[in-house]
Amino acid sequence: MNEAGFTAPRSAPHGSWVSPITTTHLVSEAVRRGAVMLDGENIYWLEGRPAEGGRQVVVRRIPNGDVSDIVPPPFNARTRLYEYGGCPYIVANDTLYFSNSDDQRIYRRNLGRWPVPITPDSGMRYADFVIDDDHDRLICVRETPPGAGRDPLGDHELIAIDLRNIYPPLILDKGRDFYASPHLAPDSARIAWLCWDHPNMPWDGNELWVGELNSEGGVKTAKCIAGGMHESIFQPQWSPDGLLYFVSDRNGWWNLYRWDGERIEAICDMQAEFAVPQWVCGMSTYGFASSQRLVCCYSQNSVWYLASIDTREKRLSRIDIPFTDIVDLRVSGTCALFCAGSSTIQNSIVRYDLSSGAYEILRPLGKDEITSGHYSQPRHLEYPSSNGHTAHAFYYAPMNQDFVGPKDELPPLLVTCHGGPTAAS
Contact, 353 vs 335, CB < 8 A? Predict the structure, then answer.
């Protein structure tokens, strides 16, 4: 026992240290959370629950802090669009629309009532939902899986589903191998979307299209405004004042741009990534608090940061928060909502107040009672690689407050290399 009343670490060979971090500890709170969403003052997210056979549940948090499930069993909110899926739901005016795993039909749930299907039991898959209030419809991507359509790889279309169940689904665009990310302009007279063809993945190259809508809601004219075989576009989104923003890697980095109807200009030219590889639908790295304020997250050297951009001055200001991994960013006029974590903070759902600058952890993964003395903190390293490039790594030194290694023994080095090409460990 030392003078402070604590037991001094004892010497033991590396690999023999006893740690409270066990496999049981790692999987006991393995609920996955993500796909956050805002509807008025209510906050929503998706939970994948191993204890329920992996069932995915949409959860709602109301302003007083009460949390409740809004997808009842046996429903399972999961889409299999493009096999990898993604965000399977949208909420508007307290009404939930979600894809159900078993039959892949879209269900509507007016809160307080049982979910009812609004698409046929046909095996088709749906995702990337957008509510078009002016035409009382749901815009989304529809996939006819391989074997059921003409194309052996499946047929994909951008469609609109009449929520009054009067008219059949209206095809807004078809003929491309893949579609994603539809977004309506504030005046509901224009729509933007992404599309691409084999052999490309969306991070290799895709196209950003804008269509003019007629009085019936169909696309009367459309044109490609950005992208191509070797330019990757991510998350087209209209600002409140009707400008189309998007992320492009045309300069070698995924940076923010905007289109005013005639020309494209860079908003933030940085050696940083303002996007993520689009493996699934519904991904978001920025949103608008107002026409003049954009809130975003970006990555440098595999560390994520939150920032605010003055869209008139095109000036970025980093926001000081203790998180190093940020995903699923949604923004309203008062707050930013996202999933975040760090080497010392569990992955959690976080609400950031845009006025006060304060953040609140709404939903941690679970109770973690293991002290920081058992966690190794990563140190960022850089080293020269081939062809003049610089490679990056995180070094985790051995760490256990109860043990130290023998003075004459070096710890083994375990090297884990992420296979890439679109992520890091």
Answer: yes
